[in-house]
């Protein structure tokens, strides 16, 4: 399986707007963290449900569920986390970890979380639904035949729109073999491809770009923190998920 995952933010109105979440801050654990997963489209009223989440990265070993343990699973689109007892994050010594999730019907999500204090932190993570892409994006899903794990000639191209005039194209030459992580031939009979093209010219895309376009925990060439962080301008991005 080949995965390039996407994770997103926005300030759009959501069906969970106005929802009150009670959090027990009297826990023995440090730095309570709430991850709120939502559909990137402002007009979708469905919850993302329950799904497994992977925590990785430099400080993953310092993170646990808000109730304890390391069986990370979101419930109703929410995931409550905390740092382990004794961990004291600060601006000078932040705790940094990565969040990854695969939700059926959505592009894979990945997000870097930086914790700099012991107070409650809430992160909104928006997922791009394949069936309902947002303005400034294009989605194409195809299923093509394989013979003993070998593909015929395949071209996958995204469509244009008034908010996305560029085309993303993936070409698989005839005779291409599909291998697993151990370089063994995958004897499948079909290849399913899901591609999301993120353009560069709409505000909606700048709000959902993976990791954001205005990171704050940025160092200069001398290793010194840059006050206020920096601002990036994207030239576009592809999320490719093949199985």
Description of the structure:
There is one protein chain. The chain has 243 residues and is mainly beta. 2% of the residues lie in helices and 35% in strands. It contains 1 helix and 15 strands; from the N terminus they run E-E-E-E-E-E-E-E-E-E-E-E-E-E-H-E. It has one helix spanning 203-208, and strands at 2-3, 30-39, 51-56, 63-65, 73-74, 78-83, 95-101, 109-115, 121-127, 137-147, 150-151, 154-157, 169-172, 190-198, 237-242. The strands form 4 sheets. Strands 1-15-14-10-11 form a 5-stranded antiparallel beta sheet, with no helix packed on it. A hairpin with a 7-residue loop joins strand 7 (95-101) and strand 8 (109-115). The longest helix has 6 residues, at 203-208. The model is unreliable at 1-13 and 23-27 (pLDDT under 50).
